[in-house]
Amino acid sequence: MRFIRSSNAASPRARIAGLSGALALAVSAQSAGAAPTPIPEGMSTGTPAPTFIGSPAVQNPVFASRPPRHPFMAPNDRSELHNDAYQTDANVGPGPLGRGMERLSTLQFADCASITFDRHGRLVAICVGLVRPTLMMFDPKTLDTLTSMPLPQRDPSGGKIFNDFAAGGYFYLDNRDRAVLLTNSKHLLVVKETPGPGFAIDQDYDLSGAIKPGDKGFSALPDWTGRLWFVTSKAVVGTIDPASRKVRSVKLPDGDIENSFAVDESGGVYVVTNRALYRFDPGAAGEPKVTWREVYPNSGIQKPGQGDIGSGTTPTLMDNGLVAITDNADPMNIVVYRRGRNATGNRLVCKQPVFEKGASATDNSLIAAGRAMVVENNYGYSGPQATENGMTTTPGVQRVDVNRALDGCHTVWKSNETSPTVVPKLSLANGLVYLYTKDASSDGSDDWYLTAVDFRTGRTVFKRLAGEGLGFNNNYAPITIGPDNGSVYLGTLGGMVLLRDAVPPPRPSSARGKPRLRLSLTYRRPRRRDDERPRRCALNPVKAKVGGADARLLTQVDFRVGSHTWRVRHAPFARQLSLERGRHGRRYTVRALASLLDGRTLNLRHLVHVCARGVS
Predict the structure, then answer these.
(1) Which pLDDT score, from 0 to 100, does residue 583 have?
(2) pTM for this entry
(3) Containing domain of residue 451, as a range?
(4) pLDDT value at position 550?
């Protein structure tokens, strides 16, 4: 069975709807426990596309601090579309390295875009079809359908079929493996897993008092106290007290919201509308209260590739207390702000143009790792027809870093890959950025590739064919890197595609067992006179350094002496420690808490003898 390429006279919606009858038997086979039916390939008459391009990658880990684990969400990299509450789109674990890659797919006749993982490793996803979204559970290795729950039908108002992400595009898995989601019936549901497996509604919050007719619930997340926050397409921001079930909301003066939002441990909730970036904090009664508002540059034009006339990115939280979005200027900028409640000096840190004037747009969030960001160009994607019959969108992927002194931004590299609409992901373990690309074709073929780009250089390392034709168009769905086996999952218009190495890549330290980290201290010694005995102790300050065979796995080291703590987040993991000047021969215990790339920690310590100056 194949997706048949039609003439340009038929719209993508008509083409997809026209296939429903022919595929009804295939779709009905996707009942619980059934083996998946593969997504049909397009009927290409051109030269068959190569399955693999380039060379397998070698793991080259990226060292970056990780967001704190949210106490009311599933672990980072498992909990929601953008990986974590900071919305970093960066994974600790490895994606595929391009070694004998395998492909599986499951035909769902819906885009299984938002994917999470429960504590058993099973995929919990929402698959959005033309009529309704469905909450699904899949086996992570076989893509067998384990269970499903139909959700309320989509609201067709607004006329945006392929870039309407309300009530299905975003949800999260909480710390109890419950799916928390907004519905088109203006309710927020908390859905638990049951034996079998199955789904059952655990909590149901009626939001119809806050979400008026013509408005749509867009995304929901908890803050660090467990209070639920939600945003709507008409720029309503609201909170729910789970204990009292009280709903409080505020209508913003801006036009709409087309993205999710971010939360941090300080209580901040970061929301972008089509005019401004906001920080909210809860008020005295738990109501959403604006802490600050920053208007960003805007051309006032809804460019092809965007959902509205504003920023196309969910706010991304970064190191050094920063938050980043893209604006809607021409050319588009990455814009970085200080996210604290109060900012000393200018809240704006930098504004860096990306891509070309007249051809720059994105509707997918930034990757963030340390001070680095990665952005892709979606300009030209007006819908699935834009990538049909050999056509594609405007190329461009860039890495932009905030200056070390936080006094500006600069471009690190530019790639000419064409990634029409995917949310890209970074594997910190591999040092690879994963894209979903489609080049233009003169013979009318529509070949979609998983593409790995070196995070440090922007060089394309390899491409693996995902499939050909309309069924493999991801249409804004993200790449999702599996937490355990180095697999990549991708929602498409046909359902979901799984790509993985024949032999899973090692997690960074799995081949070494216990991390072999050692703490070494370098002492600063004064020049010894000829008549002076050799010193048996160190002088202030001492230099502490964590090194060893597995130093490449470090992401952060906290040095501690007594009540004093020094944090180091970059290699080399070393720090000058100023110790109290005490009596000759005093001993200090220098401790180091080493945080590893795979999430583990190791406690190290060393005794240091400190002597007074002039005494040996």
Answers:
(1) 45
(2) 0.82
(3) 2-41+60-500
(4) 67
